């Protein structure tokens, strides 16, 4: 579904990402891990059009996407969240998710202005789908809260709900468990697994919570100083000496 070949980018003299190959198959939950500053978010930015690489190429659904604008890539179904919670602070939860459907609207401007039949039908469909996503993410009881008034854990779920409204084929989650307590993390794990099971969406995520990564991932790739140093199934990566040295720590391998 997604393939990166030889992606490289430097900032000044710093090689942030260097010759990274990555391949994500349809239906996978694929995790990208590594120490702080390893280049993970930079790689996400390269994959989604927010940065242009110095070298390399990216294919999504067998289509080259380098040079396309982020909104064009999103329109193809490659949707991402961000480390910092990106929600509409002054909109209610249900209004925020409804806004996320804007790329799916087909009614013309005249029909919208006069509230014609096509516009009314789309509005009903958006309301129904918004309610479905809010129920799926556990946010239905919070529908009328302003985004800024949601507890932090619910804000993280709202960011996922917004992404789901954009109808992703591949969902990229940038550290979705940051700041969550164990109960919220368990809820997040269930939602990520259900995203694949219920909607058939492929997931690529960056995450520091190793228990989360190990528990849900089909495969894991590890970056260190901008280079991919390992890739494989969770148990293989957890036992890889290079990964243990770079990121997990000796105690993790012994505990495993």
Describe this structure in words.
The chain has 11 helices and 10 strands. With 256 residues, it is of the alpha/beta class. α5 (117-136) packs across α6. The protein has helices at residues 40-47, 70-75, 93-99, 109-113, 117-136, 152-165, 182-199, 210-216, 234-239, 241-248, 250-255; strands at residues 2-11, 14-24, 29-33, 55-60, 63-64, 78-80, 170-174, 202-206, 219-224, 227-232. The protein starts with a strand and ends with a helix. Mean pLDDT is 87; it is low at 107-114 and 250-256. The strands form 2 sheets. Strands 6-7-8-3-9-10 form a 6-stranded mixed beta sheet, with helices on both faces. Strands 2-1-4-5 form a 4-stranded antiparallel beta sheet, with helices on one face. The protein has a single domain, classed as Rossmann fold (3-Layer(aba) Sandwich).
């Amino acid at each position: 579904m997604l393939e990166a070949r030889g992606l490289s980018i430097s900032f000044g003299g710093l090689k942030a990402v260097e010759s990274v190959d990555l391949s994500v198959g349809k239906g996978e939950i694929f995790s990208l891990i590594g120490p702080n500053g390893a280049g993970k978010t930079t790689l996400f930015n390269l994959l989604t059009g927010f940065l242009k690489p110095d070298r390399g190429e990216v294919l999504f659904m067998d289509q080259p996407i380098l040079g396309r604008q982020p909104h064009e890539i999103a329109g193809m179904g490659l949707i991402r969240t961000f480390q910092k919670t990106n929600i509409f602070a002054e909109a209610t939860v249900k209004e925020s998710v409804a806004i996320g459907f804007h790329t799916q609207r087909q009614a013309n401007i005249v029909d919208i202005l006069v509230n014609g039949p096509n516009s009314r039908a789309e509005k009903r469909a958006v309301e129904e789908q918004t309610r479905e996503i809010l129920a799926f993410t556990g946010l239905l009881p919070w529908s009328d809260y302003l985004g800024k008034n949601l507890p932090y854990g619910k804000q993280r779920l709202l960011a996922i709900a917004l992404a789901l409204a954009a109808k992703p084929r591949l969902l990229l989650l940038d550290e979705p468990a940051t700041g969550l307590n164990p109960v919220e993390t368990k809820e997040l794990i269930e939602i990520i697994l259900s995203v694949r099971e219920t909607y058939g969406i492929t997931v690529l995520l960056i995450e520091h919570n190793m228990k989360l990564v190990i528990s849900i991932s089909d495969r894991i790739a590890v970056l260190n100083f901008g280079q991919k140093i390992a890739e494989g199934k969770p148990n293989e990566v957890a036992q890889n000496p290079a990964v243990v040295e770079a990121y997990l720590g000796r105690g993790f391998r012994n505990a495993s």
